[in-house]
Each structure stands twice: as structure tokens, then as C-alpha cells.
Write a structure and sequence with these properties.
heterodimer; A: alpha/beta; Rossmann fold; six-stranded mixed sheet; four-stranded antiparallel sheet; 10 helices; 10 strands; about 25% strand; B: mainly alpha
């Protein structure tokens, strides 16, 4: 479980996060949504420890990140998996080596054990016959799946995803969403996803945190999104005609 | 940055592979240009020296002597380092800069890896081989001078060889290699700094490479002056 307590982050005079508190539970997929510039990416990078907080605390299973020694911070990071917006696969390594990389760095497994683990994780994300291809030789959807495989190869406790669906067609985006949710259940991870994609909100949002101008404007589940009267949320989530109709149908159906 | 490079080392098994890869890319991959440039620079130095020695009172072995001194003291260590700053330095900046832009460095950090150690340390170690490159540059520079002097009709082979051997001060070679070690460290670290701390996108990677070359050259030339004053002054 990750608990976020009143966190603040500024860059010069620009106050990006202005006191956000929330929590993310184990075994659940939590989504952070909000307009561009609302502070989502900074929030996620604060969770990852890539940015130091100006104020507030982040607790990973009761351990306050700020109070950990550098060694313990690095140990904690070994338990984190991250899927970056652009996948962030290492260009100089093929698919198998990308996934194998954390095993090489942090385990004492034999070559055979590593190969087996890489193969099983790649199979889990439906990557077959592409182990020897380089990231530039595979599609965006496959790159995302390889990034997910690399993120889960060490059985992390925490999985973070920054816009995992950006640049993907709707069908592939749904596949990625479902894959993340299945893996979260299977590995009992605490998963936090930054997204703009309203399909993701409807599909996998077990908990949704809506950020607006550096503040938490709302939080709830995907069911709550239909019922909420919060104007900021409804303006954002139902900005498209399609979703307006979906909501109308849902509300009418309930009545 | 330098302190962080030497903190929390990457697993030796992984680091060994990285060092060998860097030796291949940075040292072996630069041999072609170094061989080409040093050979012709040696030839040009010899021809220009010969053309300026008109007086019959000046012995002809001075051509070989001047070629040796110029190549060992300056052209091999300093001139080659400036070329390496362009070739290797811009490669280092653009490769690390691209990793920064595409969040590959963030990916390393998130995994709990000391990214500075992982990226920069193998380059510093690989460039410990740099004196071998300079030794080859010295040899080929003098050899190029010999061929240009003899086949250009500026000197006889015997005169040139006598000039190369006359008044030889072994410390000059040591001085050149001491300089080389400093330049190797500069070539590994200054471009890494510009790549690692760059911000922006693809355009900024290009700008960072240019800036890194300028600063590496400035630092090499300044260090060259200081070391010359300290060691030979």
C-alpha cells in the first residue's frame, strides 16, 4: 500500500503539486487522471522518488520514503516496476536482453534460470518470436508489452505506468489495460497509472484520483464517475459526445 | 557528478561487458581516424619544417628532429585529443542525451541503478586505453614525416633518422603520456556531463553535442597549457 500525505512540489515559482493526499491499495489498479499540466507526471515521478518533495510524506507499506537511507531507497526501487510513456526500452539491447536486464543487475540466477524467467514473462505479455528483435524493429504496442514484461520480471510490489496507452490504437489500448489489470491481480501489486484515456477509466479504474491544477479535485471508483456531481470531473470525463451519451444511458438505466 | 560516478558500483559481471563494449566503440572505433590524421599531420609538419630551413648552415637532420618534437610533444597528444573530443565526445553526449530524452536514464534510476556509474564509469575505464592510441599516433606521425621527408626529397633517410634520435629526452614522452591521461579523463567526463544533464528533445541533443565539443576542446587546451607550465616550465 502506498500512502500519500499532503505532498507539495514546486519548480522555481511554479507550484505544481499543492498538497495532495491519497492512498493506493495493494492488488488494485488506481488511475490518476487530469488535464495536461494538472501535475500527473510530476505526481508519479514523486511517487517513484525521481523528484524530492518540498513538503509531505510518501509511505510505502508504512516506510516513509524521505526517511530512508540512500541504500534503502535503492532497495525499495528494486521493488518498483515502471512502464514509461515512450516505453524507455534500451535501444542497444534486444527484447530479451531488455527484459533480462533487471535480473542481470539484481539477482544471482544462472543463465538458464534467467532465460526461463524472461521467456515466461514475455509469454505472459503475449510476445512470441520477437526475443531477438531490437526495440526499433517492433510496433508501439509490442514495445509497451515488452516494457510491462521488463517492469514485472522481478515480481515488483509496486507498478507505475505513465500513459501506457498513448499512441496506441483503441483495440491495442484495451489489450494493454486488461493485461495490466490481470497482472496486478496475479502478482498482487499496488498499481498506479497516469492516463488521459477515458476507456481506461471505464475499464480498469478500481480507484480514480482526479487532479486539477495541482490539487486532488475528486476521488472514487469507476462506478462513482457516473454518479458524481463534481463539475470538474464531469467536464473532463464527459468531454466527448460519446461519453456524454454513455453517461446518459447509464443514468437513465439506473432510473 | 564525479563523486556519484564512483559510488554504488554496478555488478562487476555487467560492468565488465560494458567496459569491453566501450573499449570497442571509443578506442578501437577511433583508430581509423587517428591513424589517418596522425600519418598526414606528421607529413605536413615535415614538409613545412623543410621548406623553412633554407640556410645551408642548418643541418638537414633538424627536419627529423623538428618532426619528432612536434609530433611527440603536441600533435599526437593534443591534436589527436581535439579530434577525439569531436568524434568520441559528441558520440558520448548524443548517446547519453538520447537516453535522457527517451527516459532510459529515468528507467535505470527507477530500477535502483546508479545511472551515472552505469553510464560514465565504463567510459572512464575504457579511456585508460587512450595512451595506446596516442602511442600509435606518435609512431605514425613520425613515420608519415619520414616518408614525406625522404620521398619528397627534403631529407635523406639517414639524416631524418639521425634527427629523430638526436637529443632525445625520455621525459618528453612521459610528459606526453601524462597529458594524455588527463585528456582521456576530460574526453570521458565533459561530454558525459553535457549528455546526462541535458533537457529537452532531439534538437537539444544536437545542441548539447556541439556545446560539449566546444567545452571539451576548451578544457583540453587549458589543461594542456597548465600541464606544460607545470611539467616543462
Amino acid at each position: 500500500m502506498i500512502e500519500v500525505e499532503n505532498i507539495h512540489k514546486s519548480f522555481g515559482d511554479n507550484k505544481v503539486l499543492k498538497g495532495i493526499s491519497t492512498s493506493f491499495e495493494k492488488g488494485k489498479t488506481s488511475l490518476i487522471i487530469g488535464q495536461s499540466g494538472s501535475g500527473k507526471t510530476v505526481f508519479l515521478k514523486c511517487l517513484l522518488g525521481l523528484f524530492n518533495l518540498d513538503a509531505g510524506n510518501i509511505l510505502y507499506d508504512q516506510d516513509n520514503y524521505a526517511n530512508l537511507t540512500l541504500k534503502k531507497k535503492r532497495k525499495l526501487r528494486e521493488k518498483m516496476g515502471m512502464v514509461f510513456q515512450g516505453s524507455a526500452l534500451f535501444d542497444s539491447m534486444d527484447v530479451a536482453d531488455n527484459v533480462r536486464f533487471p535480473l542481470d543487475m539484481f539477482t544471482k540466477q544462472t543463465d538458464e534460470e534467467k532465460k526461463e524467467r524472461v521467456h515466461s514473462v514475455l509469454k505472459r505479455v503475449n510476445i512470441v518470436n520477437a526475443e531477438s528483435k531490437f526495440p526499433s524493429e517492433i510496433s508501439g504496442g509490442m514495445q509497451k508489452r515488452v516494457a510491462i514484461a521488463r517492469a514485472i520480471v522481478m515480481n515488483p510490489k509496486y507498478l507505475f505506468c505513465d500513459e501506457p496507452n498513448s499512441g496506441l490504437d483503441p483495440k491495442t489500448a484495451i489489450l494493454i489495460d486488461n493485461l495490466i489489470q490481470e497482472i496486478t491481480d496475479e502478482y498482487q501489486m499496488t498499481t498506479v497509472i497516469n492516463t488521459h484515456d477515458m476507456n481506461s477509466v471505464m475499464e480498469i479504474g478500481e480507484k480514480i484520483v482526479f487532479l486539477k491544477e495541482g490539487l486532488k479535485a475528486w476521488e472514487g471508483t469507476k462506478e462513482d464517475v457516473f454518479k458524481t456531481d463534481n463539475e470538474a470531473v464531469t467536464d473532463f470525463v464527459y468531454s466527448s459526445e460519446l461519453f456524454k451519451k454513455v453517461r446518459k444511458m447509464y443514468v437513465e438505466g439506473k432510473n | 557528478m564525479i563523486r556519484e560516478v564512483f559510488k554504488k558500483p554496478t555488478k562487476w559481471k555487467v560492468m565488465r561487458g560494458l567496459i569491453l563494449k566501450e573499449i570497442d566503440e571509443l578506442i578501437y572505433g577511433s583508430m581509423g581516424i587517428v591513424i589517418f590524421v596522425s600519418f598526414f599531420i606528421g607529413g605536413v609538419v615535415t614538409i613545412q619544417t623543410a621548406l623553412n630551413l633554407n640556410s645551408p648552415l642548418i643541418p638537414k637532420n633538424l627536419i627529423g628532429f623538428a618532426a619528432r618534437q612536434s609530433v611527440i610533444l603536441e600533435f599526437a597528444p593534443t591534436f589527436t585529443s581535439i579530434i577525439m573530443a569531436g568524434k568520441v565526445g559528441s558520440f558520448i553526449t548524443s548517446s547519453i542525451g538520447s537516453m535522457r530524452v527517451t527516459e532510459q536514464i529515468d528507467a535505470l534510476e527507477v530500477m535502483g541503478i546508479n545511472s551515472l556509474n552505469y553510464l560514465v564509469f565504463p567510459k572512464i575505464i575504457a579511456l585508460l586505453m587512450y595512451p595506446f592510441v596516442i602511442a600509435i599516433a606518435m609512431y605514425l606521425g613520425i613515420f608519415g614525416g619520414f616518408l614525406a621527408g625522404v620521398f619528397g626529397g627534403f631529407s635523406t633517410a639517414a639524416d631524418f633518422i639521425e634527427g629523430v634520435r638526436i637529443d632525445f629526452v625520455p621525459f618528453h614522452v612521459a610528459y606526453a603520456f601524462i597529458k594524455t591521461m588527463f585528456f582521456a579523463f576530460i574526453i570521458a567526463t565533459v561530454p558525459s556531463f553535457h549528455g546526462y544533464y541535458m533537457k529537452g528533445g532531439a534538437l537539444e541533443v544536437g545542441k548539447a553535442s556541439t556545446t560539449s565539443f566546444v567545452w571539451t576542446a576548451v578544457v583540453i587546451i587549458t589543461t594542456n597549457y597548465i600541464l606544460t607550465q607545470l611539467l616543462l616550465g
